[in-house]
Amino acid sequence: MTRVAIIGAGFGGIAAAHLLRQAGFTDLTVFEQAGDVGGVWRDNTYPGCACDIPAPLYSYSFALNPDWTQRFPPHTEILAYLRRCVADLGLTPHLRLGHGIAEAGWTGTRWRLTAADGTTEEYDVLVPALGQLSQPVVPRLDGAADFTGRAVHTARWDETVTVAGRRVGVVGTGASAIQLVPAIADAAASVTVFQRTAPWTLPKPNRRYGRVRRALNRRLPVLMRASRAGTWLLTVVTGKAVTGNPLARFAVGTLSRAQRLVQARGLRARVTPDYAMGCKRVLFTGDWFRTLRRPDVHLVTAGVERLTPAGVRTDDGVEHPLDLLVYGTGFAAAEFLASLRVLGRDGRVLAEQWRDGAYAHLGIAVPGFPNMFLMYGPNTNTGNTSVVYFHEAQARYIVQAVAAVAANGPLEVRGEVAAEFDAEMQRRLTDSVWTGCDSWYRSGTGRIVTNWPGMASEYAARTRHFHPTDYTTPTPT
Question: What is the pTM of this model?
Answer without folding.
Answer: 0.93
